[in-house]
Specification:
A: Arc Repressor Mutant, subunit A, 2 domains, 9 helices, B: alpha+beta, three-stranded antiparallel β-sheet, two-stranded antiparallel sheet, 2 helices, 26% helix, 24% strand, elongated
Chain lengths: 185, 221
């Protein structure tokens, strides 16, 4: 997370190109990560980031400063909305894949052992519906009610998708574990 | 710490680009900058576009107002068929600008009734010719009753009154006694409010016998 003070935001408000460029360069990577969680292909995630930054600079006047973290979270929300807009266009979340899966147990500390990049790669392997609900709930911290509104699904669908996403993720971890011998290289 | 929290922290800690993905940030910034400049231009164009539309609407509105003022037919010359006509002279007094819309109606030279024209009605009426009509469709408008189906009263003026404009008349009079001569009961009170309008086709009118007002409606014949 990056921190930005009032002075920086004042300069952004004035539309100073150097400051805008600094923000763009500092946040591009983390915002790309945000978008890519919902829009997998690199070029489409890039588009989301670019559109998101365009919105950020055009609507910076609407931003309300609370603390030094607030700009980061505001930009992140814009990026998430952009990505979800693309995801909704590409995927009908109303028709979710119903897969029968058996619960499997994994080591209690498996998540601690996993490398962040590996974990991210595994999450990317989840089917779109599972991944979207999982990321919105676990990574972004949305409630099921909010997820249901965002994706146009019911709360119960959101809950069941999350449940299945977690089982599927454990399966993927298990497969990786058995394939590579050990996780958390 | 729960599994969810561990995953959240790990995933959110990723603030570098994914391995193997190395975009040219300089060219991407140039693209974004071009987009920002384009947006600025568009906003300026949009601003002037709106100004132009507003100016055009003003010109059209002003033009049509001018046209209506200069081309309204003199309603005094309109025929009201074979109906009995009662002429009411309205002496115009020189009024202050604020009271320009307030005129006094003197009916049959007996009583003076202040008439308040609505803001929309800018034309000063100098005299009224009231169509008096009595037929089976006549109805009595009670004081303060909102006129629904009777929305028109034939009002003829020697000066120009804009067509289809409705004016609100407020006979802020003393209590009027119930009628004696009229067959139908007529109610009157201190204040009678109704709307006057002018248009072709159906016509309505009111009668005044020196003490009482009776609103009537008729189907055009």
């Amino acid at each position: 997370m990056k921190y930005y003070d009032k002075h920086f935001i004042k300069q952004l408000n004035k539309g100073e190109r150097l400051v805008q460029k600094q923000l763009f360069e500092e946040l591009y990577a983390s915002m790309f990560r945000v978008c890519q969680r919902y829009v997998l292909p690199h070029d489409e995630a890039e588009d989301c980031v670019m559109k998101g930054f365009l919105k950020v600079f055009q609507q910076i006047g609407k931003f309300e400063y609370r603390d030094e973290k607030s700009l980061f979270w505001w930009i992140r929300k814009i990026m998430l909305n952009e990505a979800l807009m693309v995801a909704r266009k590409k995927h009908n979340f109303y028709i979710m894949a119903e897969e029968k899966m058996q619960e499997i147990a994994v080591d209690a500390d498996i998540w601690l052992k996993l490398d962040a990049e590996d974990l991210n790669t595994m999450i990317m392997q989840l089917p779109t519906g599972y991944r979207t609900v999982f990321c919105l709930f676990v990574v972004e911290g949305y409630e099921h009610k909010e997820i249901a509104e965002l994706l146009g699904i019911t709360e119960s669908t959101s809950k069941s998708q999350l449940q299945k996403a977690k089982i599927k993720l454990r399966l993927i971890v298990e497969q990786m574990n058995s394939g590579y011998g050990n996780v958390g290289r | 710490m729960s599994d969810d929290n561990i995953i959240k922290q790990k995933v959110n800690s990723l603030d570098s680009l994914p391995p193997g993905y190395e975009p040219n940030l300089e060219s991407k910034w140039n693209l974004l900058e071009a987009g920002l400049d384009e947006g600025k231009k568009k906003r300026v164009i949009l601003y002037w576009h709106r100004v132009a539309i507003a100016a055009m609407l003003l010109i059209i509105g002003g033009g049509s107002l001018l046209f209506m003022n200069t081309h309204s037919p003199d309603l005094a010359q309109q025929k009201i068929g074979n109906k009995q006509i009662m002429k009411t002279e309205i002496p115009i007094q020189p009024l202050a600008k604020k009271e320009a819309e307030k005129i006094f109606v003197s009916a049959s030279g007996k009583l003076t009734h202040p008439v308040f024209y609505s803001n929309k009605m800018k034309t000063v009426v100098q005299s009224l010719t009231i169509a008096e009509q009595k037929n089976e469709h006549d109805s009595v408008i009670k004081p303060n009753e909102l006129i629904k189906d009777i929305s028109e009263i034939k009002l003829v003026s020697s000066s120009k009154i804009k067509r289809s404009r409705f004016v609100e008349l407020d006979f802020n009079d003393q209590p009027l006694a119930p009628t004696i001569n009229w067959n139908e009961p007529v109610l009157a009170s201190q204040s009678i409010k109704f709307k006057l309008g002018i248009s072709n086709g159906t016509s309505s009118g009111y009668t005044y016998d020196g003490r009482n007002f009776k609103l009537s409606k008729s189907i055009s014949n």
